[in-house]
Amino acid sequence: MVIKTNPSSNVADINIGPLRLTSGHTLDDVVLRYERVGPIDGPVILVCHALTGNHLTVGTKTHPGWWNLLINDGKYIDTQTYQVITFNVLGGCDGSTGPTSTNPKTGLPYQASFPEITIQDIIKAQYKALKLLNINKLYAIIGGSLGGMQVFEWGLGYPEMIHKLIILATTPSFSDYGIAFNHIAETAIKNDPHWNNGFYHEEHRLSGLEIARMIGMVTYRSSNLFTERFKREKSNNQYHVTSYLDYQGIKLRSRFDANSYIRLLHAMNQHDISKNFGSMALACQALSIPTLMLSFDKDLIYESRHIKTCAEQLLNCIYHHVDTNFGHDGFLVEFEKWGGLIKHFLSY
Predict the structure, then answer these.
(1) Final residue of a domain: which of 268, 299, 314?
(2) Of 3-12, 51-60, 335-344, where does mean pLDDT reach its minimum?
C-alpha cells in the first residue's frame, strides 16, 4: 500500500509488510518513506543516503534536498530524463520503520528494543518496496558513505536488476579507524544522564548525541578546511570552531534520534563485502556490473588507497580521485569537480 504523505509533494509511504532480518528477527508492518522525482517512465536511479541523511534528495524550491545541486532539473543527474527514488533507510527516523516507530506488538515506540540491522536488511527492504512499486529494473544506484555501502550490497545481492553502480567515498569494508570513532560516539550517547538504557523520554533531547555529532564533524572534514574557515578566530571569548561544533550538535539533536544513530552505526561497523565470499578479491570478482568509484582527498575514514585498490580488483570499474579540502564530505559539495563524471558515466 502506498500512501501520499502530502498530495502536493513527491513524498509517499509504502508498507512492505513483514521483513525477516539477518539476525532472524522479523519486523511486522514495515513502512518505508520515499521521494520519487522525474518522469514516471524514465530510467530509474535509486539514491542511497548517508548516516544522518534522509529521503529528501531533491526536495522542493522552498526546502531543497541534500543533493539538489547534483540531482534536479538540468543538473548532472537530470530529473527531466531520469526518475529518481530515495528511501529513508530502515532503522532511520524520517518516516521509515525504526526505533521511533510504534511496535505493533506493544503499542509503544520500539526505542532500544528495535533489533539490530545490517546493510543487507536495509537493501532488502528497498528491494521489496521497489517490487511493490512495479520497478523491476534500475538504470543506476548511487550513494556515498553509508549510502555507498548500500550500493555495494545492491550490486552483490541483486545484480540482475541493475545496469550501473556509482559508489562515492566508500571502502569495501569499514575501517578499524571508523569503528573506533563510532565507538566513541556511541559511548558519548550512552553516558548521557538521560539515556535510560535507550528508553529515554522524548522531551529529554540527549546532549550525548550532540557530542557524537561533533565527533562526526571532525572526521567528515579536513584539518585544512578547519584552518581555512576558522583561522583561530574568536567571538565573545569563544573560538569560532567550537561555536560551529556546538551548533552542529544542537542541530542534529533537534532532528535525529539517538537509537537510530546507534543502530545505523552498528550497521556501518559490520560492512564488509568479503564476508560471504571468503576474500575481498573474490567479492570484487563477483561484482561485475559497470561501476564508477570516486574517492575524496583527505578522507580520514574512507581512505582513497583502499577505494583505489578495490576499484583495481573490480572487473568493470572507472575510478577517479577528487582533490578537495572537504575530506569525506566532498561527496556532498563541489559538484563542479566531479558531477560531470557521473553525467558522462550515465550517458553511455
Answers:
(1) 268
(2) 3-12
- How far is it, in rounded angstroms, from Cα 177 to Cα 135? 38
Domain check: are 240 and 309 in the same one?
Answer: no
pTM: 0.96
Query: Could you give the number of structural domains in the chain?
Result: 2
Cross-strand partners of 143: 48, 167
Q: What is the pLDDT of residues 289-340, one digit of tens each?
A: 999 999 999 999 999 999 999 999 999 999 999 999 999 999 999 999 999 9
One domain, residues 250 and 300: no
**Domain ranges, residue 202:** 178-268
Pick from 125, 219, 222, 114: which is nearest to 174 by CA? 219
Catalytic residue among 145, 173, 222, 295: 145
- Residue at which a domain ends, from 253, 268, 283: 268
Count CA atoms closer than 13 A to 253's CA, side-chain side.
Answer: 20
**pLDDT, tens digit (0-9, with 9 covering 90-100), for 233-286:** 999 999 999 999 999 999 999 999 999 999 999 999 999 999 999 999 999 999
What CATH number corresponds to the domain at position 162? 3.40.50.1820
Residues 37 and 238: their CA atoms lie apart, in Å, by: 43
Of the residues 49, 55, 271, 328, only one is catalytic, namely 328
Active site residue 145: yes
| Whether 254 and 330 share a structural domain | no
182-185: Cβ within 8 A, 24+ apart:
182/265, 182/268, 182/269, 184/215, 185/211, 185/212, 185/215, 185/216, 185/261, 185/265
Contact yes or no for 175/297 (Cβ under 8 A): no
Q: 255 and 278 share a domain? A: no
Q: 94, 192, 257, 299: which is the annotated catalytic residue? A: 299
Q: Is the pLDDT of residue 66 over 70?
A: yes
